[in-house]
Design a protein that fits this description.
2 copies of one chain form a homodimer.
Chain A lengths: L24 H11 L8 H12 L5 H12 L4 H22 L9 E2 L2 E2 L1 H4 L2 H20 L4 H15 L4 H10 L7 H30 L4 H28 L2 H4 L5 H4 L5 H5 L1 H18 L8 H11 L4
Antiparallel strand pairs in A: 1-2
């Protein structure tokens, strides 16, 4: 299938989701730029690949969640910026590795050539490898030290074998051996919980931890994160099944083409839309214990629910 | 070139370097086994690949350095075990990724098939990806929290773009554009400092930090680590140029075969041996401020200097 060329008609760098006047977009971009090493500190090729991988167009959903959660817990966004950058670095590395020929073999990401197409496979592997320690270095610099250590431990679990990486292994393994719909559904939910849910949930938790939130509020945000993560994945599946590649910014229809397990494959497009509606309602409901400072998180649910890329 | 089959005649699992009765070997192996997630916590394929990558035969040089440094600073080995495992996990991940077809394309490592030959490329990438956060999770659990945060920050820098990963990028880039011996020598030293020296030095530093060492002792161990790292790399180059594949446990002669920059290529085998002798002497000299508790580190210099694998 020929790849669509990136189009200026869709701005994949547009802040997503746009909440009010998007107070977080600019400070996230500036902080991401600042945290990457320049050519004076690492090989120029690596510095370039890191900038390409991290600073390309992106929705910045996870760092926005960090900042929104910090503010919903009475903290301020600037103090949570290292944690915001850390989750985006992990996300960016995981995309660069998932796109590799040995894995999803994707040529297009966020409307541009993937890292291994723009550079080469070795550089894509190594750029991803360098982003992981950088994320932990940012968290290790948080103050006080117990916040730093706690954030490192939380991100490590979300990015590790039991969550992010385990989800990708499950995702690649396919579902050949499973024949019953109930088994398939359970498997799909586990993949999503590991691959998407854990990083979305930990983003909210890191923001809350930096802001000194109570255990009760952490539990509320964890429950919210699980629903939001599921909503994000379900809408991602819908975009792949029904969306336009140019607008989505990456190849569409690829999931079905490679026999990948998705909600539309499992339950059909209409039932998947209804599932997304229910999940969005549950996400909003889980935020009830929080006051108006959590309104940006509520607005975000609607944006994810009705997104077109 | 046909690969030699692993031979029982050379025990690549043999403790290296053997210091006295090898007090550290067994507790390092046990701690590495304990820290890896089982099949109850991550996909069985990933659990298996992690065990294969980490628990295979290995010299365990870096974790031994952590424990020796802790003891040389008046600390005890058990308290430093999480840090010892952390550096070995980072080392194991870097080997699995360096061996990939897109990089060094090696089939044999430590006398066994490399991770991507035993499993597949995707699994080798993902096993490596999962080992990085696990290393930081172990450090984040150290107590008190400021030790945890400091160790995370130190390992992050040593494993990041400016050190370990940057060294591999430089190493892959080759030296085509450089014609003067002086330029080549500088480049080679920078590659070694980044790729080998930084992780060896940080191993010593983590052990010392866990033991509560003074800034002065940290500086002493840092200077020692730089010489030991160089010695290790120079002897590695010599083994590749002159060693027997069966004994070394990996393909030899490959550096020259692929036009890789090494000390024997740059200065000849004899001058490289003399350089190794000088470097070993400097390493021992740098330990002078430390008392007899550092004797295992002194014995280690001799073992690295005269190693056959």
């Amino acid at each position: 299938m020929p790849l669509p060329s990136p189009s200026a008609a869709v701005d994949h760098a547009a802040p997503f989701p746009t909440v009010g006047d998007d107070p977080h977009g600019a400070i996230i971009e500036a902080a991401l730029q600042r945290c990457l090493p320049g050519e004076d500190r690492c090989p120029p090729l690596l510095a370039e690949a890191l900038r390409y991988t991290v600073l390309g167009p992106g929705k910045r959903l996870r760092p926005r969640l960090v900042l929104m959660a910090a503010e919903a817990c009475g903290g301020d966004a600037p103090a949570a910026l290292p944690a915001a950058c850390a989750v985006e670095l992990i996300h960016a590395y995981s995309l660069a590795h998932d796109d590799l020929p040995a894995m999803d073999d994707d040529d297009l990401r966020r409307g541009r050539p993937t890292c291994h197409k723009r550079f080469d496979e070795a550089t894509a592997v190594l750029a991803g490898d360098a982003l992981q320690p950088l994320a932990f270095e940012l968290l290790a610099g948080l103050s006080p030290a117990d916040t730093a250590a706690r954030c490192c431990a939380e991100l490590a679990r979300a990015a590790g074998a039991e969550a992010l990486v385990g989800g990708q292994v499950d995702d690649l393994a396919g579902a050949e051996a499973l024949v019953e719909t109930q088994q398939l559904r359970q498997r799909l939910e586990r993949i999503h919980a590991r691959k998407t849910g854990a990083m979305i949930t930990v983003s909210l938790r890191l923001g809350a931890i930096v802001a000194g939130a109570s255990q009760e509020i952490l539990s509320t945000l964890t429950a919210f994160g699980e629903r939001l993560g599921l909503l994000f994945q379900v809408t991602d599946d819908l975009l792949d099944a029904t969306g336009d590649a140019e607008e989505v910014g990456k190849r569409t229809g690829k999931d079905e083409g490679r026999g990948k397990l998705t909600y539309p494959v499992l339950m059909g497009v209409e039932a998947t839309r209804e599932f997304a509606d229910r999940t969005a309602a549950e996400a909003l409901q889980s935020l009830e214990p929080l006051d108006a400072t959590a309104d940006p998180l509520r607005a975000l649910v609607d944006k994810v629910h009705h997104r077109s890329h």
